[in-house]
Amino acid sequence: MKHCLIVLITLCFFRFGLLVSNETDDGKVNCNDVLSLEAQRAVGGAVAKLGLVLLEKLQPGSEQPNIIISPLSVSLALAELALGAKNKTEDKLLEVLNAKGLPNFHETLSCLQEQLTVKAVTMASRLYLIPDVRVNQDFVDRALNLYKSEPAHLTSIEEVNRWVEESTKGHITNFMSSLPPNVILMLINTIHFKGEWQSRFDSKFTVKDIFYIDKNTSVQVDMMMGSKYPLSMFVDRKDGTQIARFPFQGNMSLLVIMPVPAHGNLPIAAAKLNISDMYENFQSEKSMHVKLPKFKLQYKQDLRQALTSMGLGLLFTGPDLSRIAPVPLVVSGIQHASSMELSEEGAEASAATSVTLVRTIPTFAVNMPFIFALVDDASYMPLFLGMVTNPNPGATTEQSDDPKIETESTMKPSKVSQNDGTLNDSPHMENMLSYMLNMWKETVPKQFFRHQEMEDGN
């Protein structure tokens, strides 16, 4: 039996500078007819739901303590495969894509892909075909028109790796060591994001600080600092989860979701997330003391097991992909590779010679395991999702006491020195108790407090 191999490759970089593309698909899809805000958010929600379910299935482990996936890349590849599917196979693919009931799903996803190419996002797709093997031209044309999947002859592994390296700006090399036997087709999708913080960090104030992997283990990381960083955030009072939004230029945002230690199971927290609800609950920006780890992480995973548990096991046993080719086809694997770099590179120089950090202002310190999402602000579509349990996996871990909870009454002013930017107090865990209390007071009627004062007086 011939084999159809899908390879997903994604790459995410957070660096200074915008990368813009004006590529179009020659007007094959009229985006003005399908790209209403309602349609964007419906498809964005479908991509988010797939990504969050997939993230829940992929557990961090000792070898890969951090998970980075691109729900958009996975959705694009599965949607392209659905173009060649029939009957139950097509139904299951659309079900997992959350596309059932969404009008013009393929066209809307295609237009969102095009729209993102002017937001510091570069995407490339390639449809590799074995020479002299008959593939339905209608499938090739639709893949090209909808998802810009350029057809090419599959001649050697060297040529494939060369294209992957070029499309990922040289950051993924020698991706494949060999071709699977009897391969007839490969779908390759790459995504690269290069953006600039809207409010940038100053590298002079990046310091070594503690990241608490769990209540007994910690690791030293490079921590970016912002003394009066404009941050939009809220606290989920049910779970105590802190959720903050770091905007990039070009209407993209990095959402950071950090459960408190008592609710620190990241997969469980991921299963409860709703990106649309997050945007509705974000408060207006407030000046805060921010600590955000600087890191560069890589992740590689075969998604076969995770997608099988989501109902797509038939892809690997006996799918109906007869719209692709008249010969029987199965999917031999779905490879997903991702990389993410978070840094302050390109930050504006500060005119001040020293910065005073007063701990009585609210603090958002990302110094324990967290979930992140890189989201398009218009469609609420996550380009990347991930869990970070150790932002410095190459470093030696240390034994540490259960992190101390610091409340407003125990907070003390501290300074960042002019010379090295180090904090003069010991590492700690800020848990936003004062911020939570203030936010709660803002939302509860004042009559409640007067009633409580009367009861206390009695």
TrEMBL record:
GO cellular component assignments: extracellular space
Keyword Signal: yes
Keyword set includes Signal: yes
One Pfam family, short name: Serpin
Ranges where the Serpin domain occurs: 52-391
Ranges of compositional bias, category Polar residues: 410-425
Gene3D superfamilies attached to this UniProt entry: Alpha-1-antitrypsin, domain 1, Antithrombin, subunit I, domain 2
Key words, A-Z: Signal
Residues spanning the signal sequence: 1-19
PANTHER family referenced in this protein's UniProt entry, alphabetically: ALPHA-2-ANTIPLASMIN (PTHR11461:SF20), SERINE PROTEASE INHIBITOR, SERPIN (PTHR11461)
Family per record: Belongs to the serpin family.
Record-given protein name: Alpha-2-antiplasmin
Species this protein is from: Carassius auratus (Goldfish)
UniProt lineage: Eukaryota, Metazoa, Chordata, Craniata, Vertebrata
Gene (name only): serpinf2a
